[in-house]
Amino acid sequence: MVLNVYLIRHAETDFNKENSGFLQADNIKLNSQGLTQLKDLSKIFTNIKLDKIYSSDLTRAEETVKFVFGKDNKSIVLDKRLREYTHGSVSPDSEEWKNKYKELFDKGMAREDIRPFGGENIWDLIKRVTSFLRDIEKLNGNIVIVSHSGVNEVLLNISQKKKKEGFFKIKQDNACINHLRYENNEWKILTINDTKHLDNLKPEIECYENITEINNMLINFLKEKALFNSKDVLAIGDLSKGKIGKYKRVFRRYFGTPLTIVAEVSKDKIKKEWKIVTLLEDYSEYEIGELILKGAKHKINLIVPKNYKEFILKNEIKKIGDYNEVAKPIKQKALSFIYNSKSNKFLLKDSKGIINKEIKENESHEKVIEEAIKEFGLDIEEVFPLKWGSVYNLDGEEFKEMNFLSFVNDRKIFDYKWLNLEEFIKQIDWKDNKKLLKKVLEKAIKREVYFNKKEREQ
Q1: pLDDT (tens digit, 9 = 90+) per residue, 87-96?
Q2: Percent of the chain with pLDDT over 90
Q3: Residue 61: CB partners within 8 Å, gap ≥ 6?
Q4: Looking at the DSSP assignment, which residues form a beta bridge with residue 114?
């Protein structure tokens, strides 16, 4: 039995627009932006057959579920266990709440029983969400749950058998989708806080005239935190375009645009205090800090790709500060070469087309490829990494494909990947090709094409 769960946070309310706390009040309705979000959210479920739909019975959640799945839908079940966490009259983040909690704890009261200002404590919330989770584990098929930020965060954590002290901090934007799967008595989280369906709702940005200050602040933040070498951190998204400023309306709780960066970070370097912003198929995103400029908070978000090399090939990236207020997008040019030794032809292809060149008698491979490259509109000296004499026909290899990447904006994009190097090495018996290996290395060094340190040492 397999159970797919689409866990949704309700759409935006005026309270969400102006606050970041929890509230269980039942008189809060969706605002106009929330209703717009639901139009895009509805499209996601057009072709998904659902077996059951659960929702909190609070108005904002009920409005969400009935808008998306139909107000007369008999599959909808309202469940009080999915209500938002209510902490009483004082926020648990305040000093007043913390001091009262400490006072009661020091008097010998069990933490599960402490409710300094009425309402619930976190243990109450965990208990009712756990009860709900155990019930749905008996189901199979596809189900939807519409709930609240606090409930969703707890559900995601307890699905991974996390204790309260080990909970991950997880961001839940309005109308986001989390996808979980339950199979063989185990929960697997597939996505967290997916809001791609809302990308078209991002408001306009009033860009700052001078972004030098915030660039320097960001670089200093990275250096002070010693998270990673700031030289290895790349800008992505609006930051890579130099679009730093304030949104014309609150977007995902903030007026300030996020400062989104990408870096290759191993799992053991990811800190527990970083808040999970998004978990998608090809990358995770974490909130690792914030900068305040011109009265606006700018969250620093770190993207950690599952495959760093592939990710930065596919996305617009730049070094921090290496952009203007209106930045030109990076265009990456890739060519693929296949040599057929039987027909004595080179097949060249890129995203726009294919060129087939025959090698005439006594004609060098280099000359043929140079002519073909010019037909693609590239300067021969800009093509990365090697000159064409190093495209080899290896004995026993009828076809050999090699990838060449051009320089972009006067800098090498990927100086650590050459000819799909790992696959290239695996396919060749270097013991019988020492001369070839020497030639490859000489050309690589001459062209300043670097393997990573480990490959260089090998």
Answers
A1: 788 877 788 9
A2: 40
A3: 10, 55, 82, 146, 147, 148
A4: none
**Hey, what are 313's tokens?**
């090939």
The count of other CB atoms within 10 Å of the CB of residue 238 is 18
- Cα 194 off chain centre by: 9
Q: pLDDT band for position 22 (50/70/90)?
A: low
Amino acid in position 286: Y
Which pLDDT value is given to residue 446?
42
Pairing of strands 205-207, 141-147: unpaired
Distance CA 369, CA 429 (A): 26
- CB atoms < 10 A from the CB of 315, how many? 18
56-60, 92-96, 415-419 — which is least confidently predicted? 415-419
What digits encode the pLDDT tens for the residues 283-302? 999 999 999 988 889 999 99
User: For strand 345-349 and strand 354-358, is the pairing parallel, antiparallel, or unpaired?
Assistant: antiparallel
C-alpha 401 chain-centroid distance: 31
Going by their DSSP bridges, the two strands 259-262 and 296-305 should be labelled as parallel
Which ranges of 160-230 would DSSP assign to H, the alpha helix?
A: 212-225
The yes-or-no verdict on residue 400 having pLDDT over 50 is: no
3 state DSSP class of 291: strand
Which has the higher per-residue pLDDT, 441 or 150? Answer: 150
Token reading at 73: 């839908």
User: Alpha-carbon distance 116 to 103, whole Å?
Assistant: 9
Q: In the prediction, which pLDDT does 426 show?
A: 47
Tell me which amino acid residue 285 is.
Answer: E
Q: Is 143 helix (H, G, I), strand (E, B) or coil?
A: strand
User: To the nearest 10°, the Cα dihedral for 365, 367, 372, 377?
Assistant: 140
Q: How confident is residue 305, by pLDDT bands cut at 50, 70 and 90?
A: very high
Q: Which residue matches tokens 């309260």?
A: 164
Cα 136–Cα 142–Cα 144 angle in degrees, nearest 5: 70
Contact 115, 53 (CB under 8 A): no
Helices (H), 160-251: 212-225
d(CA 441, CA 445): 6
CB 56 within 8 A of CB 147: yes
Cα–Cα nearest to 291, from 322, 251, 319, 260: 260
